[in-house]
Amino acid sequence: METTLSSCRRSVTSSGFTLIEILMVIILIGILVTLSTGTLTGTVNEARFQQTVLKLRQIRNAMVGDPEIKENGSRTSFGFLGDIGAVPHMDHGPGILQLVTGGGFAPFAVDSAKRMSAGWNGPYLVTGSLGEDPTLDSWGNPIEYSHGTNPITIQSYGADGAAGGSGLNQDIVMSIPVESTRVTVSGFVCNNGGPYVGPTEVYLHYPDGAGVISTGSTVPNLATGYFSFSNIPVGVRSIVLYGNSSAAPTKTVGPSVLTIDRPNYMVPCQFVDMGS
């Protein structure tokens, strides 16, 4: 009988698991699950980080255009700024939504006499490519937008949703220098490519910030022909030169179309040439 019981004990011991062995397996499984969960979370956050970078870049390009889009060497994409004359006027989410809904701006229209167009011509953001809500980042947190700073900023607080941080928790910021949105336009009145001396007036047409075409005028320096306009929104604009004055012109040159695409834009001589 004793021999039989000893055999049974050895059989159970050799073929089964002890309590310690079972606990070790459970601990090992827990470690593997923790490691795999951490890896998966990191991968998901990395994907969301990249998606958010793309989303913020799309919002920036919707606001001010994509400088890489050109035709015959000239920039053609100026976004909301190009049509309205300013970036969205409201901060945070409501400002971003002006790219989608219009926000009460003047409707897009073409003025053939001035060779200018202006007004809301959106949507500038296609929400289907960005998710259901263009005001949220890929973690579902609000995208911060501020138009009253220099630079103008569009930003996400990253994976942790809090300011600061590093790695995937770092803030993602798209900056728009104010000086790249509103610039100085200047030039010299010419005469067959050379300097012109005499009374003239120059008119510049551009959207006023609400989508309505505005006209600025200046009297060039009588001795040098130099003229300048400040705080002009970048985009496709038009210019007219009057010999003597607009009220009693001896000659009219234009309106000529200008692609104002850089700070301190210099009007080419052929657009303000009294000898042309």
Observed structural traits:
single chain, 276 residues, alpha+beta, Immunoglobulin-like, 4-stranded antiparallel sheet, 3-stranded antiparallel sheet, 28% helix, elongated
The structure class reads alpha+beta
Question: What form results from the Cα inertia axes?
Answer: elongated
Number of strand elements: 16
- Uncertain regions spanning at least 5 consecutive residues: 5-14
Number of helices: 4
Give the strand order of the largest sheet, numbering strands 1, 2, ... along the chain.
12-11-14-15
Number of domains: 2
- Output mean pLDDT: 87
Portion in strands: 25-35%
Distance between the termini: 125 Å
**Major sheet: size, sense and barrel closure?**
4 strands, antiparallel
Helix share of residues?
Answer: 25-40%
How large, in whole angstroms, is the Cα Rg?
Answer: 32 Å
- In N-to-C order, the SSE pattern is HHEEHHEEEEEEEEEEEEEE
Descriptive overview:
- The chain has helices spanning 2-15, 19-64, 79-84, 92-101, and strands at residues 70-71, 74-75, 109-111, 116-118, 144-146, 152-156, 172-176, 182-188, 190-191, 194-195, 200-207, 213-218, 226-233, 235-243, 251-260, 265-266.
- The chain has 276 residues and is of the alpha+beta class.
- The protein has 2 domains: 43-65 and 72-178, no CATH class; 182-272, Sandwich (Immunoglobulin-like).
- A 4-stranded antiparallel beta sheet has the order 12-11-14-15. The chain has a 3-stranded antiparallel beta sheet with strand order 5-6-7.
- A hairpin with a 4-residue loop joins β3 and β4 (116-118).
- The protein is elongated.
- The N and C termini lie far apart (125 Å).
- Residues 5-14 have low confidence and may be disordered.
